[in-house]
Amino acid sequence: MKKQRRKLNYKLLGSLLVLGGLFLFVFPYAESLYQQWTQPNVGIQPAEPTPVLPESEAAPSSAEQPREFLPISGRLVIPSLQLDLQVGYGVGEADLKQGPGFYPQSGYPSLGNVSIAGHRNAYGSPFLHLDKLKPGDTIELEYDNAHYTYRVDKVYVTHSRDWSVVDPTSQPAITLTTCTPLIPVDGHYDRLIVRGYLQ
Predict the structure, then answer these.
(1) For 152-166, b where at least 16 C-beta lie within 10 A, e where not — what string?
(2) Is the separation of the CB atoms in 123 and 104 below 8 Å?
(3) Contacts of 185 (CB under 8 A, 6+ apart)
(4) Which CATH superfamily groups domain 69-198?
(5) Choice among 2-16, 108-122, 184-198 with the minimum mean pLDDT
(6) How far is the C-alpha of 89 from the C-alpha of 98, rounded, in Å?
(7) What residues are paired with 141 via a beta bridge?
(8) Which secondary structure element, helix H or strand E, spans residue 20, and what is its range?
(9) What is the domain partition of the chain in residue ranges?
């Protein structure tokens, strides 16, 4: 009985030693595979050194990278109309009751098409005289602690559902939108658009 127990103990001990040896043998390979799987680029070097670009060709710094339009307010100044307006964020009815508002899909002022809607014949009529703007007139915008000056390029009328006016533009632009005419005969408004470009 004692001999059988000893044999069983020896077999068990032998099995444990064999398993321990296998573990020690396989562990470095398993660890290496695990690191390659979780961090595939560790230890991989490029075939050729990366060229250093001259300063003029270097990638723009993070401050120069395109920025998202922020849901903050701004200030709109149109000297020729003697307008100085606070601009909120949003173009819903409740937003525009407070005054002109930035379209949420606006581009960042220095990079894209920053678009602003406002009432012409209600809630203080902030854009009442927008139709009097002419090409060459100046529009100023303060936004995100920066000042931008735009020059009016054109003033025109489009359909009330023409959303292309707030689409991205190839150069930095400002787009002001409001209803026209002041009192529609058939009850249907069109959209008066003022488009200017950054100076």
Answers:
(1) beebeeeeeeeeebb
(2) no
(3) none
(4) Sortase (2.40.260.10)
(5) 2-16
(6) 10
(7) 76, 148
(8) helix 2-38
(9) 1-45, 69-198
42 to 28, 32, 34, 153: CA distances (angstroms)? 17, 11, 12, 54
Q: Name the burial class of residue 190, with classes exposed (0-12), middle (13-18) and buried (19+) by CB atoms within 10 angstroms of its CB.
A: middle
Q: Within 10 A of 78 (CB to CB), how many other CB atoms are there?
A: 24
Phi then psi for 165, rounded to 5 degrees? -65, -20
| Among 90, 112, 103, residue whose Cα is nearest residue 172 | 112
User: What are residue 194's DSSP bridge partners?
Assistant: 155, 176
Omega before 66 within 30 of 0, i.e. cis: no
Helix (H), strand (E) at residue 10: helix 2-38
Name the region of 83 (left: φ>0; alpha: ψ -120 to 50; beta: rest): beta
Average of pLDDT values for 100-108?
96
**Token output for 193:** 């658009």
Assess contact for 136 and 151: CB atoms under 8 A.
yes
pTM over 0.85: no
Cβ within 8 Å of residue 69, ≥6 positions away: 102, 104, 105, 106, 107, 108, 112, 114
